[in-house]
Amino acid sequence: MEEILKHDELSIEKSRPGRRGIRFAAVQKHAAQYLPAQYLRSAAPRLPELGEFETVRHFTRLSQLNYCLDGQFYPLGSCTMKYNPKAYDALSALPGFTQAHPFAPESAVQGTLEMLYRLQELLKEVTGLAAFTLQPAAGAQGELTGILTARAYHDARKDFKRTEVIVPDTAHGTNPATANMAGYTVVNIQSAPDGCVDKEALKNALSERTAVVMLTVPNTVGLFEKDIREIADMVHKAGALFYMDGANFNALIGAAKPADFGADLMHLNLHKTFAAPHGGGGPGSGPVGAAAHVAPFLPKPMVELKNGKYTLSGKMPKSLGKMKAFFGNIAVCLRGYCYLRQFDGRTLKEVAENAVLNANYVRAALKGRFNAYFDAVCMHECVLSLNPAEMNGVHASDVAKRLLDYGFYAPTIYFPLIVPEAMMIEPTETESKEMLDAFISAMEKIYAEIQSEPQTVKDAPHGQCVSRIDEVSAARQPNLRW
Ligand SMILES: *Cc1c(COP(=O)(O)O)cnc(C)c1O
């Protein structure tokens, strides 16, 4: 059937003269009544001529060419979309929110302001921090906001000699990039053999030049910094601030509050943990929270509740200013708000417990075939490292491509950089045991193939319309035509 009907034809190739869908004869006949003559077409537009069903099927088929979370398991580590309920998409599309003009007077957008205010309060609650700005439009912009807030804090104390930001090698790549962009010198420190911060190395790097220490928690090898309280104390003793990258807060939410282990600043990714889909470049939201001593330096305005009215407060004399026009990405904030209202303290903790349990279930099940690089209980994701001695010349990229044949999206590979032949798997809190078992079983089959017929894995994928591509030419001389 696939072949007979030529599904792969472009709409222009399927076109037949005179074929069309609904025709509103009356409108055509009287068009001149509605539009001045100079605006009417003299010739028909050169569009494909297709029947109604052909058109529907054409676009439906195109929409299904993408591998997507609504269709399949998506174990991409680090930046995965977690829980994305459709109901929140509908709520965030309510006209009261989408049709509000950014310059509308506060009295006309009390509902929007109330939602933002309540979200600020809930984020304070789950992190223990004193204040939150909802302005940043992404995680990376949240980081920049946090680092600029830290600079405003140090500047206000006339502590101008702090020019360095310390970043361990297990940080997300955006951390050193942010520090660099904010004009700081990035001081990289290597991790200890257990994948956590090397406290000796940190001690040696800390000085009166340190402005901020940025830690990704959990770090990019999926581990919780077990000495985080002690690390925070070291940072504070040196007069620096502790910035926590909390993009993957589903590992901790409801179970731990960063303020309790000494975070001065942190960002959250609403478009990862808090129910907003991401992909295609946005929109996102990376709210930044601050402890009380740093909060006055956050961007302004913030939403406040005064005499029963929600209002944008511009009265923050120490604020670093604005990071984004208007209020932030309202629709993303709204999804995050709905998400936090869906749970209570107990069920929110279950989110973190299930995220951690699922990752460890996969890690433990694959042990002995594909081992975790750091043999320890992980958080929301597990990082495997293929042992070349057992792989018959098969690499992580080959395993990733073979997974496509079994109907699974490939996990993140070759990241984090400090893990050789890395495969980073984040099942997320929402997958069932049956789905995890199916994934594990596919990985087991691939392991058996590596031992008995490695070429099958090296030549994968076998079931896609394109198999191995020349990746260098694809990047250097892309052919963008069908
Ligand atoms: C995704 C991610 C970021 C960056 O967030 P963006 O919204 O893509 O800018 C930063 N840190 C960590 C740990 C992340 O997973």
By CATH's scheme, which homologous superfamily of the largest domain applies?
Type I PLP-dependent aspartate aminotransferase-like (Major domain)
DSSP E strands, number: 13
Each distinct ligand: pyridoxal-5'-phosphate
Integer-rounded radius of gyration: 26 Å
Instruction: Give the N-to-C terminal Cα separation.
Output: 21 Å
Spatial strand sequence of the major β-sheet: 1-7-6-5-4-2-3
By CATH, the architecture of the largest domain is named: 3-Layer(aba) Sandwich
CATH class of the largest domain: Alpha Beta
Largest sheet: 7 strands, mixed
Mean pLDDT: 92
Tally of separate helices: 17
Percent of residues in helices comes to 25-40%
Number of domains: 3
Broad structural category: alpha/beta
* Unreliable residue runs: none
The CATH topology of the largest domain: Aspartate Aminotransferase, domain 2
What is the H/E string?
A: HHHHHHHEHEHEHEHEEEEEHHEEHEEHHH
Shape: globular
